Amino acid sequence: MKAQQRCIELSHGGGGVEMSQLIHKLFFKYLGNDILLRDEDAARLQFNGPVAFTTDSFTVSPRTFNGGDLGKIAIAGTVNDLAMAGAKPQYLSCGFIIEEGLPFAELEQLVQSMASELAKSGAKIVCGDTKVVPKGAADGLFINTSGIGECLAAPSWQQLQVGDQILVSRDIGCHGACILASREGLTLETELASDCDTLWPAVNALLEAGIDCKAMRDATRGGLAAVLNEWASGRELGIEVTEQALPIAPAVQGLCELFGFEPAELANEGTFVLAVSADQAEQALAVLKQFHTSAAIIGQISDSHHGKVVQTSPWGSKRYMELPKGELLPRIC
Fold it and tell me: Is 185 exposed, middle or buried (0-12, 13-18, 19+ CB in 10 A)?
């Protein structure tokens, strides 16, 4: 006889014995640290200077995909927001909204992924909350993480100037393409994996190399196109992109041609856009290539076509890289 699968019950959110067991035997087991294990209503923290603070909520379908899962993305997403602010990730909070009936084994696997991803940046989950809702109320599991980090730099799109070079940290569109392939049942597992990853090690290497990171942004929803258009519009300057310089994996390009998508509009979860002065571009590229050989210089800030992003083809023709409209793929992060 097949063993009955253990699942989350409403009592796991009731504040009694079952909830205590869930917290101590699962969350504390994998995420425990000297602050969290104090088991207080609030974490007491110390800071020596300016900090960055961010929050994000995560819902992805499917919850596990090639290259990651909901647990991994819930840590990487918030840690990456801190990294893009030039902040070393230090402390995170975590809130779980769990649907009654979620298999306990799946929840445990996602929490293990969270612990593994935290190790990449050294950040700690120091406080949290758990809610269990009736079956059908939460589509399985939602996770919220908030993060605080020590500011080591202060990148901002407001510092962009004509002549600054634009780089991407690796090939674009992998997360969106991976989720799309998974939903459509396409067998591209060996060729296509999400880029979901923690970006702090790459950012830290740039800072340690003395790179003045004028602006940084992780290209999540809306992809590269959204980031560049926001920068161009915000600074009322132009951005020129060389189409041939855009790093795009063949599997991503093929999927986009099949479905009529633009690779630059697909979401990423471990790829960021960086602006540096022209004299530091090659040095910054060399640092990024230590992490991904597909990193590239893709364009520059210009004093023409203010507020627009213009893409030049290999044949010299030009077209706008538009700000994405609508929702290409809902529930990707």
Answer: exposed
Confirm if 228 and 273 have CB atoms less than 8 A apart: yes
Closest Cα to residue 117, out of 199, 235, 236, 174?
199
Which token pair is 4? 């009955």
pLDDT digits (tens, 9 = 90+) for 302-327: 999 999 999 999 999 999 999 998 87
Residue 84: domain span:
10-151
pLDDT digit string (tens) for 135-173?
A: 999 999 999 999 999 999 999 999 999 999 999 999 999
| Both tokens assigned to 257 | 């041609």
Residue 3 has pLDDT above 80, yes or no: no
What gap in Å lies between CA 305 and CA 161, rounded to an integer?
14
Query: Could you tell me the pTM of the whole model?
Result: 0.95
Phi, psi of 188 (to 5 degrees): -120, 20
Q: ω into residue 247 within 30 of 0, thus cis?
A: no
| Whether residues 182 and 315 fall in one domain | yes
CB 93 within 8 A of CB 145: yes
User: In sequence order, which residues have a C-beta less than 8 Å from that of residue 178 and are 6 or more positions away?
Assistant: 65, 66, 67, 192, 193, 194
The amino acid sitting at 218 is D
What CA–CA distance (Å, rounded) separates 275 from 278? 9
Read off the tokens for 59: 């819902």
Residues shown for the chain? 333
CA distance readout (Å), 99 to 25, 63, 93 = 19, 13, 20
Determine the Cα–Cα distance for residues 286 and 292; give it in Å rounded to an integer: 10
CATH number at residue 210: 3.90.650.10
